[in-house]
Amino acid sequence: MGNIVDDIRANEDTFADRPFNEVDSLALAQLSYARMPVNVPRLDAEAMDVDLAMVGVRDLLRAECYDDMFGKVWSPSMNVDLLRAMCESPRWRDLRVGGYVDEFDPETTKQFSACVFDVGDGSSYVAFRGTDSTIVGWKEDFAMAFRRPVAAQESAARYLADIAGRRDGPLMVGGHSKGGNLAVYAAANAPAAVQE
After folding, report:
1. pLDDT for 60-83, tens place per residue?
2. Which domain holds residue 155?
3. Is 64 in a helix, a strand, or coil?
4. How far apart are CA 97 and CA 70, in angstroms?
5. Phi first, then psi: what are they for 169, rounded to 5°?
6. Is 108 left (phi over 0), alpha (psi -120 to 50) or beta?
7. Confidence (pTM)
8. Does residue 45 surpass a pLDDT of 70?
9. How many structural domains compose the chain?
C-alpha cells in the first residue's frame, strides 16, 4: 500500500483536472509540520490591512534547512520526500505558502503553529500543525481533555479570522492530530462571515 508521496508522484493532473480532495488535505496537513525556513513570510498580526506575502513551495527546497525544518518531525526523510514530490508535481509545483506563525510558551502551556497555502485554484488552505515533540506540546494536548479553550485553540481562532480578512476566495481549513482539533475549533468559532 502506498502513502501520500506515492499518490503525489502517481498523479500528474492539476487542480483544474481534479478538484482538491481529502488526500490533498492530508498532504498539506503533513507539510505544515515543517518548521518553515526564514524565507517563508511570517504573519504580521499588527499589519492587518497588508496583503499576505507568500513564496513558492519550491523555495523550501533548501538542503541546508532540512534538519531545522524536519529534524523534530516523525520520519524526517519521508517529509523531505513529500516536499520534493510536491515540487516535482504539476499539481503542486505552483503552490505558495506564507502567513507562518510558530508560537511556543511554556508559561501558558502553548504550542501553536499554522500557515496558509495558496493552492492556485483561487482557494486557500489554512493548515494547523499538530503536536510537536516537546513536553509543552503534549501537556497542552492533555489539558484539552478537561479544559476548553486551551491557548492553541484561542490562537487558531484568531489566526483563521486574520487570514480570512487577508485572502479572497474560498478557505479550507485542516490539520492532523491536534492540528485537526485546532482546525475544527477555529472554524466553529469563526465569525459568521468567515464561516460562509
Report:
1. 999 999 999 998 787 888 999 999
2. 4-10+19-195
3. helix
4. 17
5. 90, 175
6. alpha
7. 0.93
8. no
9. 1
